[in-house]
Structure formats: structure tokens, C-alpha cells
Design a protein that fits this description.
It contains two helices and eleven strands; from the N terminus they run E-E-E-E-E-E-E-E-E-E-H-E-H. With 176 residues, it is mainly β. The chain has a single domain, classed as L,D-transpeptidase catalytic domain-like. It has a five-stranded mixed beta sheet, with no helix packed on it. A four-stranded mixed beta sheet has the order 7-8-9-10.
């Protein structure tokens, strides 16, 4: 097989793959909600609590990097002076700097979900909603966050390249 520039493979190579359910979750920080869509159909609107004013959540389009049923999160790991050390259930990882969408059972009954933003930058939800979201989330799913006072997540902080304007993306091309 000719691969160009006088290079050849020893044999033809083929593969197959399947694409999972198209899933986009839209987080509206001002309205304290995350609405999950699958195949373009609304599945659920979840009351959330995002980053408090001193630790705002990133704006922008993020992509699920991975997930774990339990993650230990500490303030030291993300450079926050307000100390915490928590085992966090149903953690869906969104940025390399430490943004997650996760269950925050320690906030249940406090009136935060759907009402106010009190996290250290993550998107928190009830234990039941966190498990529901975790069970659906797959690597590569889109999570689009709006309404924060924080800047748009930078390219390289996860799969933040989605946030580059097209002319900037074109300038990165080897064909330019």
C-alpha cells in the first residue's frame, strides 16, 4: 500500500470501530443546572452546584477524559488554599487541571444543588444524580459549560482544543 512520498506498507491494514451514543451535557452555571442530551433528545436536567465566586468553574467545551467510581481530591493537588481532602464518588474527569463533574453527597440537604454555587470549581450534584451521570458518561462525551465568571478553558487543559476559534485552529495546520 502506497502511503505517499515513496513509502509503502508491507501489507494492507484495516480496522473497524463503533461510535457510541452522541451525548452532550450542557451546564448552565447561572441557573445551576446540567441538562444531558443523548441522540439530540433531552434525558434529564440535574440541579448542580458549580464553583463558588472565589473558585469559579471554567467556561467552555470540555471532553470527558476518564471516570472513576471514587477519586481522592485534595486542595494541595490543585493549589487551593482552602483545605480539603475528600473521597469523591462518581467522578467524571473533564480537565487536566482537576475539573470534574461528580457527586457531592456532603452537600445534600444544604440547599446548594439548583440554588447556589459552592464548590471549588467542579460541577457537583446529589449522590443519585452523580451516579446516574457517571453510568452514562463515556470518554469523549462533550460537556459544555456556560455562565461562569472564569475564562474559557485553555487548549491543552484536557481536550480544550474545541474552544479554539476556527481561524486560530487553521493557523496550527501544517498545510498553512
Amino acid at each position: 500500500m502506497n502511503t505517499g512520498d515513496s513509502r509503502y506498507l508491507r501489507r494492507d491494514v484495516s480496522t473497524t470501530f463503533t461510535i457510541g451514543t452522541p451525548r452532550i451535557s450542557k451546564v448552565d452555571i447561572k441557573n445551576h443546572t446540567m441538562t444531558v442530551y443523548e441522540d439530540g433528545q433531552k434525558q434529564k436536567t440535574i440541579p448542580i452546584s458549580a464553583g463558588q465566586p472565589s473558585y469559579p468553574t471554567w467556561n467552555g467545551t470540555m471532553v470527558v477524559l476518564d471516570k472513576a467510581p471514587m477519586v481522592n481530591m485534595t486542595s494541595e493537588s490543585v493549589g487551593i488554599a482552602d483545605p480539603y481532602d475528600k473521597d469523591v464518588p462518581w467522578a467524571v474527569h473533564l480537565t487536566t487541571s482537576g475539573t470534574y463533574a461528580h457527586a457531592a453527597p456532603w452537600n445534600e440537604g444544604r440547599g446548594y444543588f439548583g440554588q447556589t454555587n459552592m464548590s471549588h470549581g467542579c460541577v457537583g450534584m446529589s449522590l443519585a444524580d452523580g451516579k446516574w451521570f457517571y453510568n452514562r458518561a463515556a470518554q469523549g462525551d462533550i460537556v459544555h459549560i456556560t455562565g461562569s465568571t472564569r475564562a474559557t478553558v485553555a487548549p491543552g487543559n484536557g481536550f480544550g482544543d474545541w474552544n479554539l476559534p476556527y481561524p486560530s485552529w487553521q493557523k496550527l495546520s501544517a498545510l498553512r
